[in-house]
Design a protein that fits this description.
By secondary structure, this protein is an alpha/beta fold. It has helices at 14-20, 61-69, 76-91, 103-116, 124-140, 146-176, 202-211, 228-239, 252-257, 283-292, 324-327, 369-376, and strands spanning 31-34, 40-44, 55-58, 184-187, 217-221, 244-247, 263-266, 270-272, 277-280, 297-300, 306-307, 346-349, 356-359, 362-364. The structure holds 5-S-methyl-1-O-phosphono-5-thio-D-ribulose.
């Protein structure tokens, strides 16, 4: 049962958001649990931004799966957080009074985790969070009641969320040191509070560089085809009052040539053991351009984004999305009927193009297998 006193929120106007939210500390959360183990998950529906701010309520694991698949919640760490809460929702169908036998509970846990794992393939944070939830449950198996297991799994999901916020803050502080004073910083996709528990990955670095008085100017790629840069990054940068300029993806080379960019920084969805990094489609091109213009290219990502089981980026699964995202973006047909389309959502930037990876444990520079293992403490 959902407690009656839980607050109901309706859509806020853009102006209401802008007047209440000026920093990542006070920003609305991409994913937030309401209530106890019988509660529900609130998500900002990111597909509606920047024109509509609407919080949706997920009360079933199927609704969480759909929200991840459709990018209502997106960004590697936020996907992991939503999936962890999705596990809690999935377990609500198991009665907690069947104390003497936990078979149904653990069968459902496996089913729910396997189901959520099919929502999107590239961001490893999804699988990392699902593994962590399953390991937590296994560690408690046989030593407590099913009711307590449900509560402890909810606590684990909340811990994943709060740890992510702390990691993002740490990355922001460490990475800000690397940002050139008075420089232009180019970023791609959305890596802010919307993509994480709070602060963001690359956008956290940008936030702290700004806060620490570096006097930076941000350039944000619009990020075709789903426009996470235009719709979401510019929305967050505006709230944080950071000087920023939107460009089309195809303008990056020219803007670099004009001398407006002194550093490029993005997030990542999965980083292989050798540092090859998958991120939003277009990132690899930016890294090549940065190299050609002698501009440092950085990645900011928490340890939950590293997949040390993969030796190189060649093994990272790349999501392919529907052709309509390219031919009919946001309801406007922009290509003839029946054209052949290729729509990979991510690409892999080779480690040699990355100046440094910033994670919560510090700065990995140079980006080598040994250095990654050392900084991650593996
Ligand atoms: O398809 P999306 O919007 O989930 O892609 C997100 C990105 O590519 C981000 O750059 C990435 O998750 C890292 S930052 C949180």
């Amino acid at each position: 049962m959902i407690p009656a006193e839980l607050p109901k929120r309706t859509a806020l106007t853009f102006d209401e958001i802008m007047s209440t939210t000026t920093s990542p500390d006070t920003q609305f959360r991409a994913a937030r649990w309401q209530g106890d183990h019988a509660g529900y998950l609130e998500l900002i529906d990111q597909t509606l931004l920047p024109t509509t701010f609407k919080i949706i309520e997920c009360r079933t694991v199927e609704e969480v799966w759909e929200a991840i698949k459709k990018l209502r919640v997106r960004g590697a760490p936020a996907i992991g957080i939503a999936a962890a809460y999705g596990v809690c929702l999935g377990l609500q169908t198991v009665p907690a009074d069947a104390e003497e036998d936990d078979t149904d509970f653990f069968a459902r846990l496996k089913e729910v985790a396997e189901y959520l794992a099919t929502s999107r393939p590239t961001a490893v944070n999804l699988f990392w969070a699902l593994d962590r939830m399953q390991r937590k449950a296994e560690s408690l198996r046989g030593s407590t009641s099913l009711l307590d297991l449900k509560e402890q799994l909810l606590t684990e999901a909340k811990t994943i969320e709060s740890e992510d916020q702390a990691m993002c803050e740490a990355m922001g502080q460490a990475g800000a040191e690397l940002m050139p004073a008075g420089g232009g910083i180019l970023t791609h996709c959305n890596t802010g509070g919307l993509a994480t528990a709070a602060y963001g990955t690359a956008l956290s670095v940008i936030y702290f560089a700004h806060k620490n008085g570096k006097g930076i100017q941000v350039f944000a790629d619009e990020t075709r085809p789903l426009l996470q840069g235009a719709r979401l990054t510019m929305w967050e940068l505006q709230q944080w009052k950071i000087p920023s300029t939107l460009i089309c993806d195809s303008m990056a080379a020219q803007v670099m040539k004009e001398g407006k960019i002194q550093a490029v920084i993005t997030g990542a969805d999965r980083i292989a053991a050798n540092g090859d990094s998958a991120n939003k489609i277009g990132t690899y091109g930016l890294a090549v351009l940065a190299k050609a213009h002698n501009i440092p290219f950085y990645i900011a990502a928490p340890s939950s984004t590293f997949d040390l089981s993969l030796a190189s980026g060649d093994q990272i699964p790349i999501e392919e999305r529907a052709s309509e995202e390219i031919t009919c973006g946001y309801g406007k047909q922009t290509a003839p009927d029946d054209v052949q389309v290729y729509n990979p959502a991510f690409d892999v930037t080779p480690a040699e193009l990355i100046q440094a990876i910033i994670c919560e444990h510090g700065v990995i520079d140079p980006v080598t297998t040994d250095n990654i293992a050392k900084v991650l403490g593996k």
